[in-house]
Amino acid sequence: MKTSLTFLLLATAPHALAEINFTRDVQPILNKNCVACHGGVKEAGGVSFIFRDQVLGKGESGKTVVVPGKPEESEMIARVITDDPDDLMPQPDHGPRLSDADVETLRKWIAEGAEWGEHWSFTAPKIIQLPR
């Protein structure tokens, strides 16, 4: 038992300590929970999670959606942690609350500066050195 617990902790520790990667960690949360109402042609409340400049902008409420480096000032975090059913996102009739892990990922991403990753198809391949 002790060995398997140690292995589990070692296997999960690098990801837990690693910097949040937008494409790997954040975009799937947004795609699953947010873009149906806040993306593409539908921008409920004047908010879209498709382009970074829109995420850094203000919604119809006048509040900034994401303030890089400041999760406590970001409306995104306020909306996913509130207990007010009128403000909660996603709205209760549109899906379940975000998990604590998803909220923590978003919070950490914002705290780290809310870096935005490009889709892999828009990034040039990099030549890497193969091990000898």
**What about the largest sheet?**
2 strands, antiparallel
Write out the strand line-up for the largest beta sheet, numbering strands in chain order: 1-2
Q: What percentage of the residues does DSSP assign to strands (E)?
A: under 5%
Q: What is the radius of gyration computed over CA atoms, rounded to a whole number of angstroms?
A: 17 Å
Characterization of this structure:
- The protein is mainly α and 132 residues long.
- The chain has one domain (21-118).
- It has helices at residues 2-17, 22-33, 52-55, 75-81, 100-111; strands at residues 38-39, 42-43.
- A two-stranded antiparallel sheet has the order 1-2.
- The termini are far apart.
- The model is unreliable at 5-14 (pLDDT under 50).
